[in-house]
Amino acid sequence: MFFLPAAPPRPLTICIDPGHPSEVGRGTRGRHVTEIQVAWRVAIRLKSDLEKHGVRVVMTKRTEEEFVRNRKRAAIANAASADLMVRLHCDSASGSGCTTYYPDQQGSSEGVRGPSRDLLQRIKPMARRFHKILAADLRVVLADNGLKGDEYTAVGRRQGALTGSIFSKVPVVLVEMVVLTNDRDEAFVERPAGLQKLAEALADASLAALEKP
Question: What is the pTM of this model?
């Protein structure tokens, strides 16, 4: 009797989405660096860190300045059957620190309602594990602004969820890594060491999110 060898386990797939430029604009900027620059620089480091752990990484952009609509960003993660999509952004606000957002209810955009209720149930515990580790890793260098639903963002308030969440068929979180209009936060991400610290924390958080509870 002949037995076929067991298929090797499928590697984890994480989609990294460096925010902007998109249909909502070019994002925020500090005195010295822009959201596009920071998100791209962290994304490149995060990709390298995840690949060292054997993770298959898919990027939603090929270059820093590539324009990609948010619906297309979700489609890229969907096509890759990503185990998790991590969206990287910087905030513009009066405070400082890091915030994680996730869809905890359905929203509507372009006649589509989503994400599915089954996916919402999957995302919630993953988002909790993700933010717990992210906040712990960054506790000495950045304030923790907590884990919040998409509806606490400007777009989420209008649509019920972020566009990238509505069209997503895979688990998704969005991280406002710093408040770029805060001088201290900007100084942190201007330095290569700060970018690497963020990337390592995001890698740890992503892997924690995908651990079986």
Answer: 0.94
